[in-house]
């Protein structure tokens, strides 16, 4: 399928995302794809390409800058700052969404945001900012926020897909997210995969970086199906 690297500015940084366009089968629906914590990777591009194969216009956003991955200590520092104050990550995600919705053929009423690891947190924060997203999907995504009251701004349906053995998303964080979504009367779902670790969608997650980060083929397949079911309800 056709791909194009797009440069854009956000939060004082130069970003480079990648647009994936269906080959003759696009129907107006579009998906913003947010990468895992270290940055854009083959994993991100594979996901966006699969979406384009299904007819969705997909944009793999860049939230670190330069279209490149960063060292883990750099990523951790930035993520920590954004968790303390989500203003910056919301600004970066909003800029990427504007790039996607400006593309020819995109129907702004049929746009979803999906993300992996901190990318899931990113699209959840974008939704909390009041962005016009019909659906938001977080795969092994951090659920916490410094501004839970902003869940009242969420316009679309929310789906989170979490492994019960994920050391980065403990039961207390899941419970707080449930309370947040329920208080805001969001149409939300959380699917739990028993015994499944963090990064279960990424075949390169082999536990070598730290325990509890491990690919799971069954959870990968099941979570993709859950996402597509939500898309059928929301963006077609």
Structure description:
The structure is a single chain. Helix 1 links the parallel strand 3 and strand 4. The protein has helices spanning 42-53, 72-84, 87-101, 118-128, 171-183, 217-234; strands at 3-10, 13-20, 30-34, 57-60, 111-116, 135-139, 157-163, 188-193. The chain contains six helices and eight strands, in the order E-E-E-H-E-H-H-E-H-E-E-H-E-H. The protein has 236 residues and is of the alpha/beta class.
The low-confidence parts are: none
> What form results from the Cα inertia axes?
globular
> In whole angstroms, how far apart are the ends?
20 Å
Residues in β-strands, percent: 15-25%
Rg computed from alpha carbons, rounded to a whole number of angstroms: 16 Å
Strand/helix succession: EEEHEHHEHEEHEH
Question: Helix content range of the residues, please?
Answer: 25-40%
Global mean pLDDT: 96
Number of helices: 6
Classify the secondary structure makeup into a structural class: alpha/beta
In the sheet with the most strands, the strands line up as 1-2-4-3-5-6-7-8
What does the main sheet amount to? 8 strands, mixed
Q: What is the strand tally? A: 8
